[in-house]
């Protein structure tokens, strides 16, 4: 029975998901169904015996179909607590049989996404810009990036970051993204290459994942400056797929569970795409396993028009903690998706963080992808500082601490709530 994905599938496509990084003008999104490729989610009450029996049955059905058309069959399986599913290539007759199976909850097509345009928003710098840290239990970083200032102050305009010196120590951020430049000076040896869905390929060639990781845990740009970074690479070049992202997410959840890290971990998903039943099931399963997924709300369509988050996955998953983006003057960014599915707003316009052109490089990017890691870092910070051990406790605490009523502009149903670390109170 297959258990590992054959990654020779079209250098696939990032989960109907696109890395939700910069302005839509820089990253163009083409949502294409991959012909013949499907993601199958089994019913929640499926036990191990039922799952194994179903997979064997699918193999038999697929073998019978080979006389009609050469297809690959099952390419990978997903298994987290009560989420069981698989991905593969099947002909129309086979997928109809699978869909009619009593064990199957949902069948959906895999998607291909292409990213086009500039990787950076603004300039790329090749020097470090270290903050100055005072030495006490509650410390302040001077000349901090505006995003860090925003999450430690109740008003816009601060250039200092005040935080507890525990700073997320002994916590773990799983960055499901384009990879991480693990030897970047921002990470001080705290970043590792955990998993790649592309065998042997861990290098971040886009800079997106490295930038995200720097906002979570960089020594200068990070919210939780002592947290560990585990890179989960699901994005190669400018293409990947729903199935690839789910494989990376599946690995991250199981790694957290096997290492008993649930109470001190977060999964950052700075990506998004069309609504997906599989994503909802995967996020729910992780949540019930004690793992919080922090998710970007998304950057609208190809014409830079914001979209309701209700139509985007994984942003619309009920158990995801979904983050919209604001500018430095605390207005919603022009691209941020919106609606009641958004849990909180965070800095996402022209964010400085780690770059990939050298181990000391700095890059500026914009997007809900940049807002998301501010909150992922905050989740780790609060897990450690306040000993919060469940996703529910962390989610409620972030909302309770948030700065309310200070965002100007039209929120379109998103909360008027800015992420705040509570350090000054």
Helices, strands, pairings?
Elements: E1 18-19, E2 32-42, H1 48-65, E3 73-80, E4 83-89, H2 92-99, E5 104-114, E6 124-125, E7 132-133, E8 138-142, H3 146-151, E9 161-164, E10 172-177, E11 191-196, H4 208-217, E12 228-233, E13 239-241, H5 242-258, E14 265-269, E15 271-274, H6 277-288, E16 292-296, E17 312-313, E18 321-326, E19 344-347, E20 351-354, E21 362-365, H7 368-386, H8 391-401, E22 403-404, E23 417-418
Parallel strand pairs: 10-12, 10-14, 11-12, 14-16, 16-18, 18-19
Antiparallel strand pairs: 1-15, 2-4, 2-5, 3-4, 5-13, 6-21, 7-8, 8-9, 15-17, 20-21, 22-23
Helix pairs in contact: 1-2, 4-7, 5-6, 7-8
Give descriptors for this structure.
425 residues; alpha/beta; Alpha-Beta Plaits; Rossmann fold; 2 domains; seven-stranded parallel beta sheet; five-stranded antiparallel beta sheet; 24% helix; globular; disordered N terminus; Alkaline proteinase; Peptidase_S8_Ser-AS
Question: Can you offer a commentary on this structure?
Answer:
There is one protein chain. By secondary structure, the chain is an alpha/beta fold. The chain has two domains: 32-113, Peptidase S8 propeptide/proteinase inhibitor I9 (Alpha-Beta Plaits, 2-Layer Sandwich); 124-418, Peptidase S8/S53 domain (Rossmann fold). It contains eight helices and 23 strands. The protein has a seven-stranded parallel beta sheet with strand order 11-12-10-14-16-18-19, with helices on both faces. Helix 4 (208-217) runs parallel beside helix 7 (368-386) and helix 5 runs parallel beside helix 6 (277-288). It is globular and about 70 Å long. The protein starts with 17 loop residues before the first strand and ends in a 7-residue tail after the last strand. Mean pLDDT is 88; it is low at 1-18, 21-30, 114-119 and 121-136. Belongs to the peptidase S8 family. Residues 1-20 form the signal peptide.
């Amino acid at each position: 029975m297959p258990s590992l994905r054959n990654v020779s599938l079209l250098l696939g496509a990032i989960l109907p998901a696109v890395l939700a990084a910069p302005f839509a003008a820089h990253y163009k999104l083409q949502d294409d169904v991959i012909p013949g490729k499907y993601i199958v989610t089994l019913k929640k009450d499926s036990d191990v015996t039922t799952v194994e029996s179903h997979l064997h049955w699918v193999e038999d059905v697929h073998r019978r179909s080979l006389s009609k058309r050469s297809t690959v069959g099952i390419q990978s399986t997903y298994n987290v607590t009560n989420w069981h599913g698989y991905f593969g290539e099947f002909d129309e007759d086979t997928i109809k049989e699978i869909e009619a199976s009593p064990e199957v909850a949902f069948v959906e097509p895999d998607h291909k996404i292409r990213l086009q345009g500039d990787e950076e928003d603004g300039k790329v710098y090749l020097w470090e810009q270290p903050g100055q840290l005072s030495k006490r239990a509650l410390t302040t970083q001077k000349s901090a990036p505006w995003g860090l200032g925003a999450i430690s102050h109740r008003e816009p305009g601060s250039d200092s970051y005040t935080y507890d010196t525990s700073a997320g120590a002994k916590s773990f951020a799983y960055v499901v993204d384009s990879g991480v430049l693990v030897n970047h000076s921002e990470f001080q040896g705290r970043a590792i290459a955990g998993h790649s869905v592309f065998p042997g390929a861990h290098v971040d060639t886009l800079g997106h994942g490295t930038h995200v990781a720097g906002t979570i845990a960089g020594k200068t740009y990070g919210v939780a400056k002592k947290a560990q970074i585990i890179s989960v690479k699901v994005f190669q070049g400018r293409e990947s797929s729903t199935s690839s992202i789910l494989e990376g997410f599946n690995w991250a959840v199981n790694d957290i569970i096997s290492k008993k890290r649930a109470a001190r971990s977060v999964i950052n998903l700075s990506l998004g795409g069309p609504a997906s039943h599989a994503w909802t099931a995967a996020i729910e399963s992780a949540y019930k396993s004690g793992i919080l997924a922090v998710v970007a709300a998304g950057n609208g369509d190809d014409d830079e028009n914001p979209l309701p988050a209700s139509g985007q996955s994984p942003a619309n998953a009920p158990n995801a903690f979904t983050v919209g983006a604001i500018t430095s003057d605390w207005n919603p960014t022009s691209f941020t998706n919106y609606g009641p599915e958004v849990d909180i707003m965070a800095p996402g316009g022209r964010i400085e963080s780690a770059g990939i052109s050298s181990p000391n490089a700095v890059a500026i990017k914009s997007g809900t992808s940049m807002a998301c890691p501010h909150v992922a870092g905050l989740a780790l910070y609060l897990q450690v500082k306040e000993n919060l051990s469940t996703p529910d406790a962390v989610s409620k605490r972030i909302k309770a601490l948030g700065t309310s009523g200070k965002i100007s502009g039209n929120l379109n149903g998103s909360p008027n709530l800015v992420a705040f670390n509570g350090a000054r109170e």
